[in-house]
Amino acid sequence: MPRISQAGIPIQQAVTQDIRVDLGPSIGEGLQAVGAAAIGVGRQLQEEEKVQKLLDEKMQNQIDISGRIDSAGIRSVTDTNIERLMFQSPDPTTWESIVKEQFQQASADLTKIEMSDETRAVQIKLLEIDLAEKLASTQGRAVVQKAADNRFKATAELISAMGTGKLDDIAIAEDNLRSVLDDTIALEEETDAIIKAVKEKGNDEFVKTVAGVGFAAWERTVTKENPQGDLAVAFAAIDELNLPEADKAVAESQMRTRVTNRRAENTLKLEAQQEQQLDDINQLIYFDKNYDAAMKAVDASSLDEKAQSSLFADIQRRAAAAVKHKDIVTDRSVFERLYNDALGIWKGSVRKRDFNEDLRNNSRFLGDEDYQELLKIAATTLKTSQASALSNADREAGRLLVNHVDEPAYAQFLADSMRGLKPDAAKLFESEANEIRQLQFWNLSLYNKDLRDWITENPDKLGREFAQYANQQKMIYWSKSIEDIRATKAEGEQVRSTLRELQAETDKAKQDPIKAPAVPPTITTQAAYDKLPSGSRYIDRNGRISVKR
């Protein structure tokens, strides 16, 4: 059956009628009219869907109200039937079976009533509570009945003794009646306490069930676009049950606690999922350099829009640089800061999630190799003592190898030095100072890499031996002049350029592996160097191509 519009016309027909627009003498005006008509039709459809949704909700509310009334009627009839059957069967031993049979029938009748799952859950819980209370009450009444029989018997014995006139028999009968009366009072108090406890437990369970109804209503509002869900829907679901204010407040509190806990669980799961996705994307971008696959992985990820936009921009930037066979130049001061943050992960002072975001936001300042280096440091498990040793060594060496490590101090140095200089001279001075500072930071990063390699080879030597090695290397790197550092860096860039050319030749010669050039291995340990045959070319830890003698 077609859905009906507010005008009483089937929606499909209304759409057809609405878009019959005369283009008129001007095609442009006609197209505008068609566009306006299409927008109007879209809005009309949205309004129709809203109206239909409201009608469906109103209809379901009416069904649930009717279901609650019918359920209450079933519980009332069940209680009346139990009282009648118990009256007809004065033997207390039969009462429990009567109660269970009647509630079994009531449960079957309840399943036949039309209502929503949430309303049915509440009504079933109410029936279960009635059953528990009725059983407790029945057992209590059986105890009271037995106590009444004992009182009647003890009273009859006292009357009989008084008829004999024997004082001893009368005294015994009086004591027995007094004992029976005391026991009766204790039994009645105990029974009342049991029934009260059952009622309190039933009420607690009912409130918990109502909280579950609200929680389920909230869960249905959780989507990818709205992971926090809509608490207002949950409160409305509880409000519809018309609980006493005290019970309603408890149910809402329990529901809010469950929602808070679930949100926390969902957040942790999402963060773990996003961290794994980011690791996979980083592998595609910075190691595999498979930019097409990286774009698809970013698009399919659960990362937020800001993170995705940042990654898309970086992928495009690096893909463009790869086409031009150019490296992205690293800002060494940015690298130095991120290096310390990466170590901070293992010292417990930096969250990996925060580091990843900072790294991503500064990706435009990092070349591929340096980005890889930071990812490796962040992913390599370090003991707290190792991370602290490296961080302290970096801080001490930074003060020695870099003239102005802190950005504010460097900015003040530039301002003081360029004061009074002509614009061209000031610009030239700033350019030269920036280059020197970048070279000093680069020299510091080589020093830090030396120390990380040493710790990898000597993981248990973090005391005096590490300090001696760090000081020794620090003086070696400090003794290098700016010209030495510039020459070493230029040599490394030449090596990387040569490697790119070799890789390009390798890719080109894939069809004929025999002609493919061999890329020299990278040697960073003494053991690897010892295994290398004499005369072999290799890349040392500073990135230079050498030949083993």
Task: Describe the protein in words.
There is one protein chain. The chain is mainly α and 549 residues long. It has a domain at 57-258. The protein contains 18 helices and 2 strands. It has a two-stranded antiparallel ribbon with strand order 1-2. Helix 10 (332-347) runs antiparallel to helix 11 (352-361) and helix 10 runs parallel beside helix 15. The longest helix has 62 residues, at 27-88. The chain is elongated and about 130 Å long. The protein starts with 10 loop residues before the first helix and ends with a strand. Mean pLDDT is 78; it is low at 1-28 and 513-517.
Structural class: mainly alpha
Oligomer: single chain
Distance between the termini: 89 Å
H/E element sequence: HHHHHHHHHHHHHHHHHHEE
Rg on CA atoms, Å: 42 Å
Helicity level, as a percent range? over 70%
Strand order of the largest sheet: 1-2
Q: Characterize the main sheet.
A: 2 strands, antiparallel
Basic shape: elongated
Please, how many helices?
A: 18
| Unreliable stretches covering 5 or more consecutive residues | 1-28, 513-517
